[in-house]
From TrEMBL:
InterPro entries: IPNS-like_FE2OG_OXY, IPNS-like_sf, Iron_ascorbate_oxido_reductase, Oxoglu/Fe-dep_dioxygenase_dom. Belongs to the iron/ascorbate-dependent oxidoreductase family. It comes from Cinnamomum micranthum f. kanehirae. One of its GO terms (molecular function) is metal ion binding. Keywords: Dioxygenase, Iron, Metal-binding, Oxidoreductase. PROSITE patterns: FE2OG_OXY. The keyword Membrane does not apply. Gene3D superfamilies: B-lactam Antibiotic, Isopenicillin N Synthase, Chain. Residues 3-105 form the Fe2OG dioxygenase domain. This is 2-oxoglutarate-dependent dioxygenase. PANTHER family: 2-OXOGLUTARATE (2OG) AND FE(II)-DEPENDENT OXYGENASE SUPERFAMILY PROTEIN-RELATED. Pfam families: 2OG-FeII_Oxy (PF03171). The keyword S-adenosyl-L-methionine does not apply.
Amino acid sequence: MTCLESRLLVAHYYPYCPQPDLTLGIGSHMDPGVLTVVLQDQVGGLQVKHGEEWVEVKPIHGAIVVNIGDLLQMMSNDEYKSVEHRVLANPFREPRISIGVFFNPSKRGDADYFGPVPELLTNGKVAHYRDFTMAEFMGRLFTRELGSLVFPEIQMPVGISVIFLMMSNDEYKSVEHRVLATPSPEPRISITVFFNPRKRGGTDYPFQGVSEGFT
Ligand SMILES: O=C(O)CCC(=O)C(=O)O
Ligand SMILES: [Fe+2]
């Protein structure tokens, strides 16, 4: 896969902070690219968010930390999740040093599209993201909220219908949902595509589990 050719090395220096409770070394964020490889020294302070908890990434001599970024989350169609992380302010009397290498695609032309890789969209799997160019991606990078995906709005909600629920024998759940009345002065517009079986004859029983579901 050609999406790691561009590499950016960033060295961080976190000086001793006398009041570490009042600030952070690096605020909560998700790396935008494909992968980040981080080498940290023995001081510590890197944390990843796991559920609602911040978990320390303890320094292990010789070990590297590999972060999944937004692009890999989108290319993997959510098989891998971009990890929210931060660095605490350094309360120790020695500086903390870390080195991050950010891996990104180098193809940045108007015809170079990124998105869920087609190989992952077999067996009826639906793309959670639409394709986008790197120009579009970079354009939104600095306007996103920290700790959120670069393309939150590109994420397409996929509703699982009752028929699909029965065909999957409850592997997938039909999702109850609603739309609030819009409080903003501008109208809200959304477009929904409903996918359904075409065969509707009295003898068409191609849907495994459907008959069971109706009994
Ligand atoms: O200093 C670290 O351990 C992590 C730095 C980081 O998260 C980043 O550069 O994106
Ligand atoms: Fe980071």
